[in-house]
Amino acid sequence: MNFWHNIKGPNFSLAPMEDVTDTSFREIVLKTMQDGKLNLLFSEFTSVEGMTHPVGHEKVKHRLRINDSEKELLKQKNVKLIAQIWGKDPEKYYKTAQYIAQETDFDGIDINMGCPVKNVVKNGCCSALIAQPELAKEIILATKEATNLPLSVKTRIGFKEVVTESWISHLLGMPIDALTIHGRIQKQMSDGLADWNEIAKGAQLRNELAPQIKIIGNGDVESYADGLQKIAQHGLDGVMIGRGIFKNPWFFNPDKETISTEEKLALLKEHTRVFEATWGRDKNFAILRRFFKIYTNEFKGASALRNELMSTSNAEEVYQALEQFSVNSEQ
User: Fold this and answer.
1) Residues of the chain with pLDDT under 70
2) Can you give the residue ranges of every domain in the chain?
3) pLDDT value at position 257?
4) pLDDT digits (tens, 9 = 90+) for 282-331
5) Is 125 a catalytic residue?
6) Given 81, 85, 115, 200, the catalytic residue
7) For residue 41, what are the contacts with CB-CB under 8 A and spacing of at least 6?
8) Among the listed residues 244, 278, 250, 252, the one whose alpha carbon sits nearest the alpha carbon of residue 264
9) Is 3-247 a CATH 3.20.20.70 domain?
10) Are 142 and 126 in contact, with CB atoms under 8 Å apart?
11) pLDDT, position 331
């Protein structure tokens, strides 16, 4: 069964993000979500070049790691997990897609045709594919040929300029199950506001050309309610959340209107525990520090605690900082 066609009602997903959506953070999001409010999770960006390289494979495959504890939560919460891959060689997409289907427990594959980072684009990958529609087609067909896993694409409304009609129409002619449209061109990076009128144009093109393909909007979704409003207003099947999760780790629990200091710090401690248990010394602890700001805000002493946490170099130091903050708060 193709999960894209079995999601009831509007779907919500957490965007693939570099050094963010690893198995440890995905587990935290699953623990904070309200049942039925999150449908799809994505891996970090995974390079097909690295995955098919004799040496690089071992350095890259950690991006596709799924902890047993995450697997259990995915099953309990009925959330699907999708591997996002990127590159420019169709043959390497084919081999990577086969690996994902045969060696991992991902439910689907997503092709990155939207990342705007300059050094990636310079190599002809991700959003650079918007300017190479025939290569994009070859990549999709090669990935589709490799596996029966559901296939989706994440892209933007243009490269140097808006080309929604021609580019989205091209993708809608491909054998994909879903298309996520970010409402900016590559040149904008994350600047300015996402153009939801262009995303709506993509949905209208879908209605005319390929009614079976799901259209997901992405860009500046501020809250769960905002997501529902954008879905209804623009004729979409769902929305994808990116930076919004950094403003509120309980984004997918919209009924939780107030979050206590104790809850925030307990979640920070749990995230630290899961990260440490997952990666140990295999990943730089500094990666975890970027998350501390999402847990340490809007309470007395938050700024000082955040500064203290940013100087930590291991889980034990985080626990000590939290314990000392608790002691000081009680005095």
Assistant:
1) 331
2) 3-247, 261-330
3) 86
4) 999 999 999 999 999 999 999 999 999 999 999 999 999 999 999 888 76
5) no
6) 115
7) 13, 14, 21, 26, 29, 30, 74, 79, 80, 81, 82
8) 250
9) yes
10) no
11) 63
